[in-house]
Amino acid sequence: GGGQVALPVLLLLRGDQRADLTKVARLLGVGRRAVQLATARQCAAAFGYPPGSMPPLGLRRPALTLVDAALTPPPEADLAESAPREAAADAARREGAEADSPPLEGGDSTPQEAGAAADSARREGAE
Hints:
- By secondary structure, this protein is of the alpha/beta class.
- The longest helix is centred in the C-terminal third of the chain and has 12 residues, at 83-94.
- The chain has helices at residues 21-28, 40-47, 83-94, and strands at residues 9-12, 64-68, 115-118.
- 20% of the residues are buried.
- 22% of the residues lie in helices and 10% in strands.
- It contains three helices and three strands.
- It has one domain (9-118).
- It holds the Pfam family tRNA_edit.
């Protein structure tokens, strides 16, 4: 059977927003139950910073980073919808983790380079 992958993903959101874990799971191509918020202790152990004060650079270890679309300017070019899933699969392979599903074909980005703008926050009156 497949092993469970514990791959930290850093979400950059506006301070007045909360993560929508259903959207994050969809972006990563995994089931909703596979995605959970880390505890303050887990964040400090993985990244060296507590939640709410974590910079996207200078982390203790590289992490896939998803930047909420509300923080990004309009794109110059379309971002492939599969980019977050491919980056997560690449990062999991580099960590030596065994995924429950076959690895996705993707680019050769390293985890610290892997990042994507995506709708990952709850929106008032949406969904």
